[in-house]
Amino acid sequence: xxxxxxxxxxxxxxxxxxxxxxxxxxxxxxxxxxxxxxxxxxxxxxxxxxxxxxxxxxxxxxxxxxxxxxxxxxxxxxxxxxxxxxxxxxxxxxxxxxxxxxxxxxxxxxxxxxxxxxxxxxxxxxxxxxxxxxxxxxxxxxxxxxxxxxxxxxxxxxxxxxxxxxxxxxxxxxxxxxxxxxxxxxxxxxxxxxxxxxxxxxxxxxxxxxxxxxxxxxxxxxxxxxxxxxxxxxxxxxxxxxxxxxxxxxxxxxxxxxxxxxxxxxxxxxxxxxxxxxxxxxxxxxxxxxxxxxxxxxxxxxxxxxxxxxxxxxxxxxxxxxxxxxxxxxxxxxxxxxxxxxxxxxxxxxxxxxxxxxxxxxxxxxxxxxxxxxxxxxxxxxxxxxxxxxxxxxxxxxxxxxxxxxxxxxxxxxxxxxxxxxxxxxxxxxxxxxxxxxxxxxxxxxxxxxxxxxxxxxxxxxxxxxxxxxxxxxxx
Length: 476
Fold this sequence. Notes:
InterPro entries: Cys-tRNA-ligase, Cys-tRNA/MSH_ligase, Rossmann-like_a/b/a_fold, tRNA-synt_1_cat_dom. This protein is of the alpha/beta class and 476 residues long. It is 45% helix and 13% strand.
């Protein structure tokens, strides 16, 4: 279903103590749990607690990982823009079967190997201009919290021990499958993990895995071993945010079984466990097939940013609704590069002109007077930005329309400055440039597209990328 056509829950939010009037924004998000859009209302007025599932760090991250990170970075930025105090937690999985297999192949210590790729992931995130989360916990640093939660689950008769392994008994948890719509009878054994005859139910999943030779392990009441995959996020989200928080996010592929199992674990450990909004980003596809390492059809973030400026990649990622599938396309990436170049070229031209006109810009503290066109343009851009962003982060609709009209107006105003004008009219044009540029950069800042360096530096880097692409094309 087209995300823009989903129905909106009409419940009105109460006023919060956020810095800005968040009621005016009427921020609406799509909740996977209820399968409808709902007006966002945090559990604590003015504060938002958000947990997003991060990467399993055993290799360079691919474009699908970038999409998840950028999608929730935009959410993080927009919540802050609305005035909320946001606690954002995104984890690293550094204890996992895939990590152990890769470490055995390379002869490295699994935790060291994973730590290396955690650092590489953060380099990629910095390039894509994703803000650092409040906390970035790793599994290996939270084993005690994980063991404590498993103990609570066992004590409440939702878990059982077999030969040093601990399993979660899914048939004891009411409403298992409420997030995904999956029914236990449809979860056939052997399709996701190997059949284990020791389980009471084929759908039961591991909370703790008994140690095997050559694997990292920790002591526990059930014997030496390591955590299962699902328990880590339940334990870490509870540790940093409590059992009751506002937003839990991740990729669409995590709805089942990962997030379904998180709900069961957390609910078993604490009856009052509650996440208000479950949010999921769509897949990145390659030839309409999900991009993933297991299929071997992926491109790493590093491979792509070597050929395209990272901000062009970010533009490409947010130029589709975060819940829609996004097909990898060289044509679209080149289009994103050209769009970024046009944006920064226009703003650089504006900045260059204004820097030469400093003496003509009033500094008396009075509100700036602008032309009627500029006033209308600013109002339209501001309203369109708020309307689209507040409608479940419709970023794809923001970088067109009023935003492009604002850039066009900047170019028109720059042309006007080259003509002879009366002093008052010239002043109106100059102040209009200042105000339109200010509004445009606010939009870029919330979208994470305002560069940390000068526009000229981005343009030079863009030109280098274009030269590289031409060289590669000619060589082929």
